Amino acid sequence: MAALAAVLLLTAAPARALVAGDHDKPLEVVPSVDLARYAGKWYEVARLPNRFQKKCAGDVSATYTLLEDGTIRVVNECGKADGSTIRAAGKARLAETSGPNSKLEVRFAPSWLSWLPAVWGDYQIIDLAPDYSTAVVGSPDRKYLWFLARSPQIDDATFQGLSSKAAAQGFDVSKMERTKQTR
Fold this sequence. Notes:
- The chain has 183 residues and is of the alpha+beta class.
- It has a single domain (2-178), classed as Lipocalin (Beta Barrel).
- The chain is 21% helix and 33% strand.
- The protein is built from 3 helices and 9 strands.
- The chain has an 8-stranded antiparallel barrel with strand order 1-2-3-4-5-6-7-8.
- It starts with a helix and ends in a 5-residue tail after the last strand.
């Protein structure tokens, strides 16, 4: 038993070192996104735990609407354990005017605070299926990660593929929580 534990520890150690070292590297984002095609409803399939989704028990979705000024209206919804729904509306914009449109910034704070850099969070699309059926979104510090899909459920092979892509970018996918979808 101790030998098995030692083998598991030795094989896991290099993975943890890789994860820690990759935090210094920028994320490799998809080169370009058709934002009109990306718009619409996405279901959260899994996420790294985070403080602002602690009350979300399931049925998490995000709806993106491309606006005429090039920004994106964001509406996030999730179900609480008591059956009620939390809804947050925000806005996304390009992170860099000359950079890829797969690097966005999102804010849910009131618009009068939008001049503060701290109210904008990184939203970087690091993987996108050619048919826009799945996406992997993360932050450069590797603290935030979401697997999104156009349907509430994905098969295990697809989930493992998304996990592999995120792990290759330095995310600790062992902490991913699958999202309960009842719709």
